[in-house]
Amino acid sequence: MAGNMNEQYEMGMRFVKMLGDFNLSLRASMMELEKAHEVVSPLWQDDMRKYYDQIWGPFRQTMQHYDKVEGPEYVEFLHIKMNATRRYLQGG
Prior knowledge:
With 92 residues, the protein is mainly alpha-helical. It is 89% helix and 0% strand. It has helices spanning 2-40, 47-89. The longest helix is centred in the C-terminal third of the chain and has 43 residues, at 47-89.
């Protein structure tokens, strides 16, 4: 059983790293998108822009919330679980 738990721990640690990398990549992509948005924004003022803004606003808020709150909290939660698993596997 300990071997299986060790494998689960290693998989969990890989997942935590992959999630952290994903979060960093997502943040960088959103920063690039924000910069592009700032360049285009003053030039684009038609009816399609109004429709776009209805979609962009909620999407932006959701992504900012994930970046600032949900993503970091979930990574921290997983670190806590992985530390508990590591302590269990080390016998204390």
